[in-house]
Specification:
The complex is a heterodimer of chains A (117) and B (117). Chain A has 117 residues and is mainly beta. Helix content of chain A is 0%, strand content 59%. In chain B, strands 2, 4, 5, 6, 9, 10 and 11 form a seven-stranded mixed β-sheet that branches. The chains are: A mainly beta (117), B mainly beta (117).
């Protein structure tokens, strides 16, 4: 099955700085990599995703890059703002023992991002 | 339209009791997932439904856990003889039908916070 490792576990930046969160995955068959933002006590919200047929995707201040060869992908947030403070989770679609993917997401352990004003 | 909803939002139960958690997916979403999130940790996959069949139950932690789904609508997750280690937030997500080579975005409900005393 899939295994996803996420680093760092905590990240503290000043407002306006950039933040980068990195994840590695183990299943070379994985083809979908979403990022979720979770504020305290709230549901995870999809903020950006990338599929294996592209190397980079950008949406305003948020970008994701994917290196399929190295099996890692990263979230980049530029010009951070205090409201970006939250827990961020990366995920990769996993397959079962038979190698079939049902869209099951395997999540990283999360990164607590704190943006100081 | 409405997002994924879950009930109850909070549930406190005594050890050994059975609990039933409910999920209403987004209308038209035939794929439904249950995840568990322990305090300060990432999300763990429990079970996946496509329509009312469950082709992947690999994440259910023990035979005390079961789930069912009526048609392409409501799903219930049942935990029998609850234990303290079952305390967590149980999250439901739904997406469009999963098909070969295609993975669709999963949208999460607000979760049910289960506390076993």
């Amino acid at each position: 099955g899939e295994n996803v490792e996420q680093h760092p576990s905590t990240l503290s930046v000043q407002e306006g700085d950039s933040a980068v969160i990195k994840c590695t995955y183990s299943d070379s068959a994985s083809n979908y990599f979403p990022w979720y933002k979770q504020e305290l006590g709230k549901r995870p919200q999809l903020i950006i995703d990338i599929r294996s047929n592209v190397g980079e995707k950008k949406d305003q201040r948020i970008a994701v890059t994917l290196n399929k060869t190295a099996k890692h992908f990263s979230l980049h947030i530029t010009e951070t703002q205090p409201e970006d403070s939250a827990v961020y989770f990366c995920a990769a679609v996993g397959s079962n023992a038979g190698g079939t993917s049902y869209g099951k997401l395997t999540f990283g352990q999360g990164t607590i991002l704190t943006v100081h004003p | 339209g409405a997002g994924v909803s879950q009930s109850p939002s909070n549930k406190v139960t005594e050890k050994g009791k059975d609990v039933e958690l409910r999920c209403d997916p987004i209308s038209g979403h035939t794929a439904l997932y249950w995840y568990r999130q322990r305090l300060g940790q990432g999300l763990e996959f429990l079970i996946y439904f496509q329509g009312n069949s469950a082709p992947d139950k690999s994440g259910l932690p023990s035979d005390r856990f079961s789930a069912e789904r009526t048609g392409e609508s409501v799903s219930t997750l049942t935990i029998q003889r609850t234990q303290q280690e079952d305390s967590a937030v149980y999250l439901c997500a739904s997406s469009l039908r999963v098909s070969t080579g295609a993975t669709y975005e999963q949208y999460f409900g607000p979760g049910t916070r289960l506390t076993v005393t």
